[in-house]
Amino acid sequence: MPHLASLVAIFLTVFCTPTMAQPEQPVVHPGADTKLPLPSFTVETVATGLEVPWAIAFLPDNRVLVTERPGRVRLVENGKLDPNPLFTVPDVVKSRGGEIGLMAICLHPDFKDNRYVYLSYGHTDKDVRVVRYTFDPAPAPLSADGAQPGDGLVEPTVIVKGIPASVNHAGCRIAFGPDKKLYVTTGEMFKRELAQDMTSLGGKTLRLNDDGSIPHDNPFLGEEHVTKGVRPEIWSFGHRNPQGMDWQPGTNLMFQSEHGPSGELGRGGDEVNAVEAGKNYGWPIIHHDESKPGLESPLVEWSPAVAPASGVFYDGELFPDMRGNFLVGALGGLVRAPTPGIIRVVLDGRKVVACQWLATEYGRVREVVVGPDGAIYFTTSNRDGRGRVREGDDKVMRLVPKKN
Q1: DSSP string covering 239-301, please?
Q2: Using CA atoms, how far apart are residues 227 and 62, in angstroms rounded to an integer?
Q3: Domain regions of the chain by residue span
Q4: Helix, strand, coil abundance in the chain, percent, nearest 5
Q5: CATH: 2.60.120.260, 1.10.520.10, 2.120.10.30, 2.30.110.10. Which one for 7-401?
Q6: How far, in whole angstroms, is CA 219 from its chain's centroid?
Q7: Left (φ > 0), alpha (ψ -120 to 50) or beta: where does 228 sit?
Q8: Residues 174/130, Cβ–Cβ less than 8 Å
């Protein structure tokens, strides 16, 4: 894929600009317009006192479900966090300082009818799983001391298991696409060869029916694949650790944000990719802005690392100038690395035309989602062992237009 000239994003100015004055800031490939005005917004706090909130899902009645890495599903109602968990995953792996645990959550497209909730998490049997539950609107109360798990999610059904698990590079974003299929991003658990190993579910995007069965139009179902042991769940491969996933309005093209090899092969190499069925996204054969026939290069690449932990297209009404922009939650790096926050990626189809940093004052940003009210919700991740803990952390916050 052709690349434009490299440009450097200036620290805290939120523009991608054509200067090499601050090399510690991420070089953006391709380059981007420098004339993007900063949107007028204010940041409101929705909930505090969380522990590494990983993902958010909105119920039809506007209540909010939040996953915490140690295994809890929390409920926010009318701007208040229920002090007791809605549910605690009983067989989740707990890793102090690592990346594995309870991760993503999503609702079934027909949630109003079936009340299905999906969770991805590291299991005590040393794999990553996606499990479907039924949401119980009236769970039994917890014990008086709140020590027992709530049963707000019942009837667990394993959708997929056997995804390679490790303390780091565990994935695992889950989302239903426009085709009502369940997509799962998986990491390669620091075993880079798994990304190209078609007999492994590691380093892949998986595509499943809502019950875990294999869609008839998945790309690797032919006899030539079956005889080689290729996993039929695979939708795309050659991924390192993708954690953001959404579909572009108007095109239904899947976009992913993916962590690059900042700790292995130089600083940075974080990516945004347009992901299509059957394609190879290169890891570990190519990385950063490299290219090779038959392998997909990223639409945008950042160096040093920004640590992209999520990605969503803005489709709300509160920020009309941001409609169609891809918003990336950036954890930032550890030393001499770009500021964490929300990265606004402005696109013209597949072409990146501008990048902009937002909400850079709150530490590590993990999840970014668009609420039913059109606000941009995000979670901090300052208690994950890699950030500076601030008062009230971790938090759910939201961007809303500034009142004149």
Answers
A1: -S-EEEEEE-TTT--EEEEE---TTTSSS--EEEEEE-TT-B--TTTS-TT---TTSPPPSEE
A2: 48
A3: 7-401
A4: 5, 40, 60
A5: 2.120.10.30
A6: 23
A7: alpha
A8: yes
Helices of type H across 5-138: 111-114
Q: pLDDT in tens for each of the 404 residues of the chain?
A: 433 333 333 332 333 322 222 334 455 665 555 468 889 999 999 999 999 999 999 999 999 999 999 999 999 998 899 999 999 999 999 887 778 999 999 999 999 999 999 999 999 999 999 999 999 966 555 544 443 455 799 999 999 999 999 878 888 999 999 999 999 999 998 899 999 999 999 999 999 999 999 999 999 999 999 999 999 999 999 999 999 999 999 999 999 999 999 767 667 899 999 999 999 999 999 999 899 999 999 999 998 889 999 999 999 999 999 999 999 999 986 545 567 999 999 999 999 999 999 999 999 999 999 999 999 999 999 999 888 999 999 999 999 999 87
The tokens for 38 are 């900063």
User: Residue 367 is which amino acid?
Assistant: E
Cα–Cα distance between 26 and 11 in angstroms, integer? 9
The residues annotated with a catalytic role in the active site are 169
| The amino acid at 54 | W
- Cα(105)–Cα(174) distance, rounded to whole angstroms? 7
Instruction: Name the pTM for this structure.
Output: 0.90
What's the start-to-end Cα distance of the chain, in Å?
A: 43
For residues 172 and 205, the answer to whether their CB atoms sit within 8 Å is no
Q: Which residues pair with 175 in a beta bridge?
A: 183
Which sign, positive or negative, has the C-alpha torsion 37, 41, 42, 45?
A: negative
Q: Which single residue is written with the structure tokens 């639409």?
A: 299
- CA angle at residue 245 from 223 to 63, to 5 degrees? 125
Distances (CA, A) of 172 to 92, 242, 367, 397: 14, 8, 12, 22
